[in-house]
Amino acid sequence: MCVGKCSRFVGLSLLVLSVLSVIVSLFLLFPNCDGSYLWEGHIGKDYIMGFSAVCLGGVLVLLTGIQTTLTGYKVKCLSCCGPRCSMLFSFSLCNLATVGALASLTFSTIILQEGPRCFYKPGANASEEWGYPFGGISVENSTDVQLFDTAAWYSVCIEPPNIVPWFACLGTCLFIMSLMEVILCFSQLINSCFGMCCGLCDPKEKGTSATERKSVSAPV
């Protein structure tokens, strides 16, 4: 795959993944699409901080995806300074996008280890409270239940309803998308290095342009 085709593939993929990552992280703040838990302060502060990190990473990845896609399609406003200059710009943006994608990956890993914050009963003789029952790192009275123990999904948390499958599915999706963003950003870094050295190679376009020049120069 040549540099131009790779840039188009990576750019479009980053565009889709960045938008989906922000949407998924937004849903994590609104369990069952109910905003009352967020307004009442029952969503963990680490989720809110993580959402900011995902948004920051999403914006950086989105900008990188746009620039990489336009460079791959040789849009005139970006290719006026030459393909090598455009690939240098893509290389710089990819470094920032890689940091953002790694931040999103770190956040998704932490929330999957910590589990959702919900209203639960920590013990037989204890009263209900808001906390992290799934082996959370920020609650001392954790029952140390694993998040992916599907048998406990509907019995541990009282509120919000169905928060555990909601959280597990969205958190897993965010982890996978963040991991894909990291891989794509690294691949574009390598692709940008080739682009700075060799420019955008597209044999078909070269062949087409040569044929057009011959047809123009040929006498009618």
From TrEMBL:
Keywords, ordered alphabetically:
Membrane, Transmembrane, Transmembrane helix
Q: What parts of the sequence cross the membrane?
A: 9-28, 48-66, 87-112, 163-186
Q: Where is it predominantly found?
A: membrane
Q: Which GO terms describe its cellular component?
A: membrane
* Coiled coil location: none
Membrane topology listed for this record: Multi-pass membrane protein
Q: Which Pfam families match?
A: L6_membrane
**Superkingdom of the organism of origin:** Eukaryota
Q: Which InterPro entries match?
A: L6_membrane
Name where it's found.
Answer: Membrane
- Give the family this protein belongs to, as stated in its UniProt record: Belongs to the L6 tetraspanin family.
Protein name (record): Transmembrane 4 L six family member 19
The record lists the organism as: Leptobrachium leishanense (Leishan spiny toad)
